[in-house]
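Board notes (copied after class):
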Amino acid sequence: MLPTELAALMIEDAAARPIEDRIWSMLPGGEVGQRYDGRAKLYDALIGSKLYNRIAWGTSPAAYSAFAQEAVRHATGPLLDAGCGSLVSTASVHAHSGRLTVLVDLSLDMLRAGRDRIRALAGCVPDHLHFLQADLRDLPFRPHAFDAVLNPGMLHLFADIETVTRELARVTARDGAIFMSSLVNDRRLGAHYLALLHKAGEIAMPRSFGQLVERLEAPSSGLAATLAARREGNMAFVTASPAA
């Protein structure tokens, strides 16, 4: 049975299945192999590396942590981390927030790595954190359930980013905020790397910072047209609100 505070955020007919300690799944059949299963260790080694991020993307893990902290500091109600990964840059932020937080990813391996990282850091998984396997394009939460939504480093994976942003907007409170980051191709070395990743089928067609902002400002995104956006190296950081 889902914890009461998590169940209160879900749509009425949501059917969550327990997978293992502190992890639930919304996918048919429960544990289904996903793209990033088996990659958690490699992901951690790269995304958690200051050198890798500086060379490849012109940014840093500290920038990712700081952006997550912005989301945590926005309001005090439930927080959704949509596409949380292994929490390699955000475990400390979430472990110490004390705020009801739902950590969502499609990959069970990423969720396990995140849970275990929290446990190693805090000695246990704090009661305010819940791990859920779900698809960002079909979130199982009721409308306006979250005061803040974090979507870290995900939009560059999707050709149709609007399928994600509309869902994020749907589950965000009307006066809430959505914190999104995405790789963009405005810096030469990172642009070359993104082109290789696209050719390998790992990401969607790379976008420039301007192209990303244009997509997010369009009515089809489900977001309010006025947003705050900045770029550090190849990483765009965007804060938006759901459209009225």
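Comment from the instructor: DSSP finds nine helices and nine strands in the chain. The two ends are 35 Å apart (CA to CA).
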